[in-house]
Hints:
The structure holds two protein chains of two kinds. By secondary structure, chain A is α/β, with parallel strands linked by helices.
Amino acid sequence: MVIHMEKHLTIKKQEGNDLMKKYRVVCYINQFFGQIGGEDMAHVGFSVKEEPVGPALLFDKLLGDEFEIVATIICGDNYFAEDTEKNTKEGLEIVKKYSPDLFIAGPAFNAGRYGISCGNMSAAVHKELDIVSITGMYPENPAVDIFRKDTYIVKTGILSSQMRKVAPVMCNLATRLLKGETVKGANEEGYIKRDIILNEEQESNAAHRAIEMVLAKIKGEEFESELLPPVFDEVEPAKEVEDLSKVNLALVTDGGLIPESNPDGLKPNGSTAWGHYNWDELMANPHFVIHSGYDGTSVLENTQRLFPVDVLREYVKEGKIGSLDPEVYVSCGNCASVAASKKKGEGIAQALLDKGITAAILTST
Amino acid sequence: MKLTVEKIDAKDLQFADKTYFENEVLYVSKEDILAFAKDEFCFETLKIDIARPGESVRIINVVDVVQPRCKVSGSTDFPGVLSEECEIAGNGVARAVTGVGITLCQNNTYWSRKWGSYDMSGECAAINPYAKMPQLVIEPMGVEDVDFRDYREGIRRIGYKVSVMLAKATLVEKPEKACVLDNETQYPDLPSIAYSYQIYSKQYDTQNYREPMVYGNAIPDSLPLIMQPTEVIDGAISLCGGFRCVTTYEIMNHPIIWELMERHGKDLNFAGVLITVTSVEATHRALCAKMAASLLKNVLHADGLIVTKGVGGASTLCVGAIASEAEKLGIRSVPIIQILNGKSNLDVECLISESNVDSIVCSGTYYHNFTLPAVDTLLGGPEDALYLSGDDGVIGGHKIATGDPAKGVVRSTYMKQVGLMSQIGYSYGKAFDY
Lengths: 365, 434
């Protein structure tokens, strides 16, 4: 089974003769690869050279006569990172002007900010301009997880010394994407998986594969499982609270109840941010439920349903509980990856520890 | 038990005034088939067509594909389904006709059994075994307000009766080959493999319809049963309509049972077959898994196990539990499972969570999608039938509110193409990250 590009980008023939028009290619690189300068020049904004520059020279050579690099867009890492949304738009406008058939960003290897700009540009060019785009990154580059579904990210090594190794892979894949030719799975092609699962027909049926696998396992021979159970963390439960009357208690939720201004930038789903808000201020000012995975109406009707502050304050008054932190801790748990949730949890736990909180109630939705 | 399956190949199907076999062509009399419908009170009549490989034909509302097959000696045909008395199947001689199939369609009533379709030409046909053989397509025209349970069982009987009739027509000629499937001798020195076959789940049955799965009997909450491998392929086990992604054709030619039988005594020992159903609650699941493992170890003395499932998540949990319990008793276990999602990655889509189940075959994702072109001829439903172009993800597949004209361009999932995805290992697909 193969991907057949639904939109075949065909070579437009020049009118009146049979000469093929060349595919137009735009490359995107940072100030370093653009030979403007190093970290000291990371603040420079967009510039364009209507020729291949830096890695684009290598792409030009590898892509051959069918392709023409019509522009190399260069932008400083810091400049881009300061406002990725605005700068992606600015970059897109430049790309549009050159109406390319193919867009190549980076590769960014393991560079964090460069990864962000390459990812943003490559994803936006594909999504908004419907142009074939490709970039390259080290699998652990933080930008990979953000953009891998929206563009093709070819796996690279950590350092730019790997350029000559990865450039041919990028060019080969880009060429086939552009021509609507067969593109196979992520491992076989060397790109980072885009969260698409497809079937490929095998030499033997599943029954035969299973029989061979079980025989190999019995004999202690090597075999490759076609799928493996997920690996779960063993979470050791916290010790129980010995004396409630001495406890410093905090409330934590993944229910997404936040100030209307959303000062911490939580997202309705896949949120990686969390915030802490003074309860009385939160209640006194406009607030809402940002979580899009449940209907927040019943929480907004009575916010004590999410945070039982009223009851707990009574308990504090009665001496049943030592104290209740005036702030509540809020994250948004919708469509959260385990990795992102772990990170949020660690952040919240550290903040509570720093404040001398000794116990917490976690309310979910 | 010992079963001999004679095989004879038919190159084509053609309509004729009578049903007979000549020069590798199976001639079929519509009247003979219509006579079967007379016994079924819920059918007005049957619409009968032939679809051939390469034709611009889409067959919709497919509920089953059956191979022409009859018994020559030994037990009766489809005991318990086509007969009241239940002879134990799996012995004697059976006649199988290769190269042609019988496709049964269900053009009304219960929606969840209407998922299947397939095209006789194009991208999917190229990888579909059923599209590579002439098919006798039978579409029962139900009387008004027919009860879907009667209708469904009526179709089952019609399909099996036609299967027997067509195979019998070939008996005038000698078979091309005879496969002897014999496990009467056990070979304890060879690696001993058992097969655990989940045949049914009540989660897809509604309105107290309990599909008759074993010799015409419903076994909704059954604990594991031991059956002979030849019984399974000789008419004892019916197709579970709710499971989809498996056909009677595949059960008759069950790829795990056939291969284990053919290798029995050569490089392995076929220890036997366990029949299980999907448990719909946890305590039943845990008990079934432990009982299955105990039977495998103490009765079948298995060293290895292959486990297959029906459609869905609960079924996967059950085969995971059986494999895990078997592994605990030292039985090396390989479940065959599928991916229930298309927009994800394989690292997070294995529904088996027991870490000791580390040898799994994945026969693909249900949600590999195809765009299929318009066709000249639509079979299995009315000309203006809608196609449930449910696309990505589990929920989309269940939507029935909207549809595209089935004769036009449609979106189909891998699981909806009958023949592409087989729960019991008949298909060749495997899932990959893209």
